[in-house]
Amino acid sequence: MKYTIRCLVGLALLGLFLQPCAAQDVPQGGRSTAFSETQRSGRSPTWLRPQQLGKPASTSDPLKDDANLWTVGVAGGLLEGTFIRYVADLAKVLDDGKNLRVIPMVTYGAVGNVTDLLNLRGVDVAITQADVLDHFRREVKIPDIENKIQYISPLFLAEVHIYGREEFKTLKDLAGRKVAFNTPGSAANLTGQVVFQRLGVQVEPVFMNNAIALEKMRSGEVSAVVHVVGKPNDLFARFKPQPGFHFIPVEYGPQFEDYYVPAALEAADYPNLIRTGETVSTIAVPAVLAVFNWPKTSDRYRRVSRFVEAYFTKFDQLQQPPFQPKWREINLAGKVPGWTRYRVAEELLAKMTADPQVKVHFDAFLDTRAGARGHGTLPNSEREALFKQFLEWQKSADW
């Protein structure tokens, strides 16, 4: 009898030992592992299929399943940055109840957002910058990065802000000095250091939140602060002026021709920091709406496709108040050097221009907007900016 009881207890313990192994269905690790699994099987990884999200299928909650069915996580940036504001705009315009839920995420910024796209579950779209992919290609050496991370459209220009103490008039004056480049993963961390490296100015980089760094400038612990954001930015717009503190110019030259464009900071941008009539030369880098390139058979591809379709369809709404004014500067059809456009976005753009009847209607629309100039004289950039307005006009036109 005792022998029988011991056998039964032993079998029970063996079952408890084996059960966790059989029940384990979510592997450890990041997005890179998932991508490898996808490449091998051609299917969505098991831990990303809808039935594997949340509770096991046998005990799933239908309400939770419905709530998660069409969610898309979008990595923004730091609260004091520009990216998070544009992601918030996307959520306000694209959210469509159970049909699409856009979830803005506070993250580290341009560089960190690409890392999140590669590794974090639930992050499918992000705002980053045009020069970031080259960093992952050359410095981080991520294999096949051009295929893994692609773009939906270019966005606004993010200007380089370098704010220094009174005694530093040029970037060369900062040689050997402590310069704050925001927190690791931010745009200032990458683009800001690129500026100094390409100009041959060696500084002592420090990494801290820029709001804290501005305060340390008052005591002289930090000589300058670098912030790469779309102007005007609240960090400087709300900063109490300190006598002598000023923006240090960055002169555009051949060393910045790959990803950057000339730009300027003006009194209209920061009336508390720049005198009326004065401008400060700088450079800017295009922001990019980036996406992880999920295989067409995956559930995440289905979700991202719906996001992209909503983005193109409702883009004209983003260009109206109360949303960020730089939405009006964005050309959906613009190209980003060194990047590949996401197939869904490419197909949508092709459909916009493939229908000859749509082209006729668009030309008629441009005639009504261009007046005496005629649509043939409009530059391509203006034509693209007007295209979304045309789609709305087309709905109410009587052909």
Features:
globular; 15 helices; 10 strands; 10-stranded mixed β-sheet; 399 residues; 17% strand; alpha/beta
Quick summary:
This protein has 399 residues and is an alpha/beta fold. The chain is 41% helix and 17% strand.
Average pLDDT confidence is 81
H/E element sequence: HHHEHEHEHHEEHEHEHEEEHHHHH
Based on the structure given, which CATH architecture of the domain at 31-156 and 288-334 is correct?
Answer: 3-Layer(aba) Sandwich
Q: Can you count the beta strands? A: 10
Largest sheet: 10 strands, mixed
How many H/I helices?
Answer: 15
CA-atom Rg in angstroms: 25 Å
CATH homologous superfamily caption of the domain at 31-156 and 288-334: Periplasmic binding protein-like II
The CATH topology annotation of the domain at 31-156 and 288-334 reads as: D-Maltodextrin-Binding Protein, domain 2
Structural class: alpha/beta
Query: How far apart are the first and last residues' alpha carbons, in Å?
Result: 93 Å
For the record, the CATH class of the domain at 31-156 and 288-334 is: Alpha Beta
What does this structure look like?
The protein is built from 15 helices and ten strands. The chain is globular and about 60 Å long. Helix 8 links the parallel strand 5 and strand 6. Among the domains are: 173 residues, D-Maltodextrin-Binding Protein, domain 2 (3-Layer(aba) Sandwich), CATH 3.40.190; 42 residues, no CATH class. Helix content is 41%, strand content 17%.
